[in-house]
Amino acid sequence: MAASPTRDDFDHYMTPNYSPQKAIPVRGEGSRLWDQAGKEYVDFAGGIAVNALGHCHPALVNALTTQANKVWHLSNVYTSEPTLELARELVERTFADKAYFCSSGGEANEAAFKLARRWAYDNFGEKKHKIISFKQAFHGRTLFTVSVGGQPKYSEGFGPIPGGIVHADFNDLESVRALIDDETCAVVVEPIQGEGGVTPATQAFIQGLRALCDEHQALLVFDEVQSGVGRSGKLYAYMHYGVTPDILTTAKALGGGFPIGGMLTTDRVAPSLAVGTHGSTYGGNPLACAVGLAALTTIDTPEVLEGVKRRHELFREHFEVINRKHGVFKEIRGMGLLIGAEMSDAYHGKARDILPLALEQGLMILVAGPNVLRVAPSLIIPEADIQEGMARLELAIEQLVAQAS
């Protein structure tokens, strides 16, 4: 019998594009995880905003096992009941008229950007192709999405990258006004920049983007891969702003841990994604859609969404208490259960140093770049787990402070 895999096996067998922490979780329940040695962890990472109902939630387990005994995969030559049920629920609960499914957030954004250009081509001709995105944005790892993203480090060495993409300053409407013109087909924005530092867009900024897009006959695309499906305290973050996009992308929490992505759009735009223009082998997979339907209907309830708001305040209070003692944070920001704590000047760039220290204390947590500590836990994380996890975080921060003194 082969020995259990170890962290050294990762370095031996896997490509080196990741550098995971030392612990290997083998079991999860709710907002707790256990590693190979039986050590318990509080999970504030949530699979990077994916495990929106924690680990092994009964509704998701039931949906997966029930569908697993029916049909797994059909391809897009056929459709399935779970696919149509999930599409119907998403359309009825949002601004959208049509849904498209794929396997990840990057694929959802790839589809959105292709649709935006195709729509402009169909309606205005090939010159209307420019996409405006934002510095520090993150939209995925395909060559197209990483080019639209506003972090050059992710596209360096993979050129030549797709053209016709320019980047404005997030929350700076005048920088968009300086770039937008009649050749612009779309403005692409995260309502909350996630990987770029957990920074919410302002109301005026989002409203201004909508007005500029309308003025120049461009589409407004919201990337809600990280902020969507309850993460903000509403089903989608656009609902906080009262501004409707033309295209919205969704993934992560949509499957609660099962890989699925989606793109939502309107009847005005959808016809440009005609038969043969785009596709995904696993898109609309019955297994994924069955789990997605269970996740969506479980999350989009007053009980869960109101609970997100209450938990946000609890996290913020704990962060502020820690900061009053140790002075390690400059700003606590975010929306719902996507929260970022920017490091103070004295600890600039030290956010990543907290991860292994937290792991030693039995806490899994995230960063958003080198200078922002990020939490994106289950939307239903018990308040006792928040209390315990923040106590463990404080112990890790005490170690960080001691190392710096």
UniProtKB/TrEMBL annotation:
N6-(pyridoxal phosphate)lysine: residues carrying this PTM: K252
EC number, UniProt record: 2.6.1.11
Any one Gene Ontology molecular-function term assigned to this protein's record: transaminase activity
Catalysis: reaction(s): N(2)-acetyl-L-ornithine + 2-oxoglutarate = N-acetyl-L-glutamate 5-semialdehyde + L-glutamate
Residues that hold N(2)-acetyl-L-ornithine according to the record: R141, S280
Cofactor binding, per record: Binds 1 pyridoxal phosphate per subunit.
UniProt KW keywords: Amino-acid biosynthesis, Aminotransferase, Arginine biosynthesis, Cytoplasm, Pyridoxal phosphate, Transferase
Record has Repeat as a keyword: no
Protein's pathway: Amino-acid biosynthesis; L-arginine biosynthesis; N(2)-acetyl-L-ornithine from L-glutamate: step 4/4
Keyword Cytoplasm found: yes
InterPro entries named in the record: Ac/SucOrn_transaminase_bac, AcOrn/SuccOrn_fam, Aminotrans_3, Aminotrans_3_PPA_site, Class-III_PLP-dep_AT, PyrdxlP-dep_Trfase, PyrdxlP-dep_Trfase_major, PyrdxlP-dep_Trfase_small
Residues the entry annotates as binding pyridoxal 5'-phosphate: F138, D223, E224, V225, Q226, T281
SUPFAM superfamilies the UniProt entry points to: PLP-dependent transferases (SSF53383)
The protein's required cofactors: pyridoxal 5'-phosphate
Subcellular location per the Swiss-Prot or TrEMBL entry: Cytoplasm
Known partners and oligomeric status: Homodimer.
Comment field (misc): May also have succinyldiaminopimelate aminotransferase activity, thus carrying out the corresponding step in lysine biosynthesis.
Similarity comment: Belongs to the class-III pyridoxal-phosphate-dependent aminotransferase family. ArgD subfamily.
Name of the featured protein: Acetylornithine aminotransferase
